[in-house]
């Protein structure tokens, strides 16, 4: 065995020797200054693998194909993730009933299965289980605070029953709804994190990033930040503004960031869902593993200690985060056994010009080409400019009709003209 193989063997054996229940909680880790690496984007990853339907983006796969969900958890764990987030995105009953979804699998059944899968894999390493809730169609349709909170309470009952380690309110476009979610989750007594899917302009009602962070902490969140909708560099700008808002208000909270794995410099207020490439032609925008190194370092330097990913993140992206932060964490992830630092495994390649790429300087300075001669470097996002309460966002159980689609096409044309 060489030194690296011996090191991995020792770490593995120490992990097996750790007694049950000895894992430190999320706040213990963050309070101690430890780096927590989150996992990646399950709905996009599983849609590409054929287990999730784009559009509804609901997580029935936790019941229908548990082996697929389990394997993806396992790959993120091997890549260095400390948190197994339950595959419960959009698993509220109102979302499952929305726009013609299959109602034979209840939200409760999905959430229970997701918790069991996350716990099974988390127990294979030093990882925590986070139960997650997200924005609701009911809020967009202007249901009351009590009605929306009842949806979160129903999900929380499962998380309490399954004894998750902490809770995440994620993917909220409106800070008001996120506050309601945090207030409900906080009744559990478990640590609560809250992330908004907003950019530097603030939430969709124009509430500033700093004010959003203040409101989330006052609602009871111990960890605040952003997830989804924007690329790492944009999300870093947003979290910086949140941090400044908290400092001005003399409030303290840990910072968290879980961005897209897509470049989105041309996005408007609502993020990547307004890009014409969303969701089936985003591949040319994917960040490389080397982009992830830069993101991880900049997040760490900003003082963010919960660093993860969302849509587009695959395990190799998470491995890049873990490798960049290995000096601070004190170890490499298991997946690094098959990956040389900064491509140094290429020194075994048969072609000399490829062997010459086995160095950090090459990959850090590379400007990847798209290979698409007629593609523009930027897109023009849709500019509908609608949010909660607008007629276009009133949710329905039935699938969209031909008449509604025709109306949408006409509105889309007008939106592009005024964008």
Characteristics of this structure?
about 425 residues; alpha/beta; 8-stranded parallel β-sheet; 18 helices; 8 strands; about 10% strand; globular
Folded structure, characterized:
Helix 10 (175-185) runs parallel beside helix 11 (209-219), helix 11 packs across helix 12 (232-248) and helix 13 (289-301) crosses helix 14 (315-324). Strand 5, helix 11 and strand 6 form a beta-alpha-beta unit. The chain is an alpha/beta fold and 419 residues long. 43% of the residues lie in helices and 8% in strands. It is built from 18 helices and eight strands. It has an eight-stranded parallel β-sheet with strand order 1-8-7-6-5-4-3-2. The chain has helices spanning 3-17, 26-31, 42-48, 61-64, 66-79, 93-96, 107-122, 137-140, 145-161, 175-185, 209-219, 232-248, 289-301, 315-324, 326-329, 352-355, 360-365, 402-418, and strands at residues 36-37, 83-85, 128-133, 166-172, 192-196, 223-227, 254-258, 306-307. The longest helix is centred in the middle third of the chain and has 17 residues, at 145-161. The radius of gyration is 21 Å and the shape is globular.
Low-confidence stretches: 1-20
Quaternary class: single chain
Order of helices and strands: HHEHHHEHHEHHEHEHEHEHEHHHHH
Helical fraction equals 40-55%
Q: Provide the spatial order of strands within the biggest beta sheet.
A: 1-8-7-6-5-4-3-2
Q: What Rg is obtained from the alpha carbons, in whole angstroms?
A: 21 Å
End-to-end distance:
61 Å
- pLDDT averaged residue by residue: 90
Strand count, sense and barrel status of the largest sheet are: 8 strands, parallel
Q: How big a fraction of the residues is strand?
A: 5-15%
Total helix count? 18
Please tally the β strands and state the result. 8
Spatial shape: globular
Structural class: alpha/beta
